[in-house]
Amino acid sequence: TIRAFKSWLNFLSKNKINPFVASRLKLDSPTYGYKNYLEERTRAKRKPEKLATSTASCYINIIKNFYKLLHQKGIVGDEFFKTEIKTLSHGRTVESSDLSIKIIKKHGGSLSPLDSDELNILKLSSNNIPIEYILNLKLMYLSGFRIDESVSIPTSLFSEVKLNNSKNSLISDLKIGPAHNGVRTKFSKEREIFMIKSLYEEILDYIDTDRYQDRLNQYRTNYGNDITHEPLLLTRTGVPFTTKTVYSQWYLLKKQI
């Protein structure tokens, strides 16, 4: 999240763009202009200019969510991006935006993961989708976690004190990394992330449920009570989530929608 904002702020500064003023010219827009900038970087031939399409997609989604939050707070209007309703299979509808950047596979195909606007699909899907998978998706799409990071998030990242000390709608100064709290970050580097307050509170509420406590007790039976950082995402048998666990459920979800 920090890298996305740093990249965006550098773009705004370099091009002298006011983030609170919409422009008729898309190249001068703080959102459309940034999207164009990211897409140009995905076409670059060499590093450090070269940017993976997955990273570009993550960056623009973070900025889009930021403007959505500003709009909800009445700080800006709705002219910074447009949305449309898409009809999926089985007649389901979701909202998508014109800021989306396609993710390209190395062999040339494209990926179409759900973006943050399409998370409402979870509300329309079967009640058989476990809450743990919903939380995992929200961590990935609302906070920019990589899948290896989201499945290794510990409960120690969440506290009532941190929640109560937050004066706005974002929880900041959250650090993750293998040495810090066991989160499997890229290149094992420690990094700082932000989280939407409502999601942070939702996870705290989940940790207090009998459902999670039962899984945690099973986890402690399996692995002992001396684990420094206990996982947030556990199966009903107390086994920590893995990327394979998520992909299996994701496959079932995609079949339903």
Descriptive notes:
45% of the residues lie in helices and 11% in strands. By secondary structure, it is mainly α. The strands form three sheets. Strands 1-2 form a two-stranded antiparallel sheet.
Please work out how many helical segments DSSP would assign: 11
Unreliable runs, pLDDT <50, ≥5 residues? 107-118
pLDDT averaged over residues: 83
Task: Calculate Rg over CA atoms.
Answer: 19 Å
Strand order of the largest sheet: 1-2
Main sheet summary: 2 strands, antiparallel
Shape call: globular
The chain-level structural class is: mainly alpha
The H-and-E topology, N to C, reads as HHHEEEEHHHHEHEHHH
Please estimate the helix content: 40-55%
Strand content is 5-15%
How many strands in all? 6
The CA-CA distance between the termini, in Å, is: 29 Å
Query: Quaternary arrangement of the chains shown?
Result: single chain
